[in-house]
Specification:
This protein is mostly helical. The protein has 15 helices and seven strands. The chain has a three-stranded antiparallel beta sheet with strand order 4-5-6. It has a two-stranded antiparallel ribbon with strand order 1-7. Keywords: Hydrolase, Signal. InterPro entries: 6-hairpin_glycosidase_sf (IPR008928), Glyco_hydro_76 (IPR005198), MUG_Protein (IPR053169). GO terms for molecular function: hydrolase activity. This is Glycosyl hydrolase family 76-domain-containing protein.
Length: 436
């Protein structure tokens, strides 16, 4: 197996150094009503505050009643932590990452006691998030066990969620033995081949909700596609790319809205499409197409990623008139999965930026800065020295939790898209980090 490092495929600092520092210098991609923030404190200050934010999240691991998130949210947190180290060329958080990722590999919630597959449980999307975290750890720290875990999750979901021709012929997902869950071979005249069930469900427990769940989801299919694309990039094994294309093209057939955003899921029994629209479904879709387009030299795939990125940054479905993502707002003291959806969009815009035209790169950079501007000024503990962030990026700040911090860290990681010239040389601290 040939293993390629992401360092050989992308070099972040030279890439961003060539970008213009003002949105006005390139063709307008973002809505004209959006704010155009500028940094008011030095780059050193921004990175220092950001490091403190990561340290604050990790401090939540301490004590009996840890506020560090568990499950898929926690895995996204570890993804951010490993990415921070990767971008900073450090191993600052390696020990904590390895201890916690190793624990999670053999103690995930749900169905691990049945499947005994590292990082896998009842939810195929949870397994996907964990595998992507493990891949980020592999790229940051070079530990081959993290790559092996990610590959094992791909194989697991391929056998316990991905819809093969044998499943269509049998009328149900064979390997998970769901005799009461009928799978239609076609919906709306299109083959269901390639979709990924949301849950696999432990068949040893007939009362397990997932054992009869008929939903085939954008998130589970998109994660599988993105995981396959990244494994293809890292290992050079074309099999991963082939399967990733099959999963993403299933989304094309069933869940793409007229505007290019992504519906949530289709019921594999009734063929009913659920028209919920969330940031993270569009994020995974554009991320998978971006990686696939790059590594297979497929301009059509890159164009799809570009168009969905532009739509995602401009849609009123989740953006305010100023350009701030408002999804996941509400009572900031209550846990809710939607807290972290929006951050996945930032992560995947960051992911694909390196393969986009300069005007799209600039739009992504500005969009990231808009989120940071609002986080700092409207949803942080101190706009002059922001460390803790809340759930409602449009404000107002009330409290930070493990979930809210995980979401904000994606924005902090994406700030690396800014060139040094975007920051002032002065080291003042008596004004907000970023303003308009």
């Amino acid at each position: 197996m040939v293993v390629f490092s992401r360092k050989s495929l992308m070099t972040l600092i030279p890439l961003v150094a060539a970008l213009p520092s003002k949105r006005d210098s390139s063709p307008a991609i973002l809505n004209s009503s959006y704010v155009n923030p500028h940094f008011q404190q030095s780059c050193d200050n921004v990175w220092s505050y950001s490091t403190d934010s990561f340290q604050y999240l990790l401090s939540l691991l301490n004590g009996t009643d840890s506020d560090f998130p568990t499950g898929w949210v926690g895995q996204n947190g570890w993804t951010n932590i490993a990415q921070w180290d990767y971008q900073q060329h450090s191993k600052l958080f390696y020990d904590q990452y390895k201890i916690n990722e190793t624990y999670y590999a053999y103690n995930p919630t749900g169905c691990y006691a049945y499947w005994h597959n590292p990082l896998a449980d009842c939810y195929n999307d949870d397994a996907g998030w964990a595998a992507l975290s493990s891949l980020e750890g592999y790229e940051a720290y070079g530990d081959p066990v993290f790559l092996a875990w990610a590959e094992s999750v791909f194989e697991f979901v391929d056998g316990h969620g991905f819809i093969h021709q044998s499943d269509l012929d049998a009328g149900y997902l064979v390997d998970t033995k769901w005799p009461n869950t009928t799978l239609q071979a076609t919906c709306n005249g299109q083959s269901m081949y390639g979709g990924v069930y949301w849950m696999n469900g432990a068949p040893m427990d007939p009362n397990q909700g997932g054992a009869g769940d008929p939903d085939v989801n954008a998130v589970s299919s998109g994660l599988f596609a993105l995981l396959g694309a990244e494994l293809c990039r890292i290992t050079g094994d074309q099999v991963y790319c082939d399967r990733a294309y099959e999963a993403i093209q299933w989304i094309d057939r069933f869940l793409v809205r007229p505007d290019g955003l992504i519906y949530d899921h289709i019921n594999g029994t009734s063929c009913e499409v659920k028209d919920w629209t969330f940031t993270y479904n569009a994020a995974l879709y554009l991320g998978a197409y971006g990686v696939l387009g790059h590594i297979t030299s497929n301009q059509t795939a890159l164009d799809i990623a570009k168009q969905v990125a532009i739509t995602s940054m401009n849609t009123p479905v989740w953006n305010t008139d100023q350009g701030v993502i408002f999804e996941g707002a509400g009572n900031v003291t209550q846990g809710n999965d939607a807290i972290g959806f929006k951050s996945v969009l930032i992560r995947n815009l960051h992911r694909i930026s390196q393969w986009m035209d300069s005007d799209v790169q600039e739009a992504i950079r500005q969009y990231v800065n808009i989120q940071y501007w609002s986080l700092v000024n409207n949803d942080s503990n101190n706009p002059n020295m922001p460390i803790q962030y809340g759930r409602n990026w449009t404000g107002t700040y009330e409290v930070s939790t493990g979930q809210t911090m995980v979401a904000a860290l994606d924005v902090l990681n994406a700030l690396i898209l800014n060139p040094q010239s975007a920051f002032p040389d002065t080291n003042v601290t008596n004004m907000p980090v970023i303003g308009i």
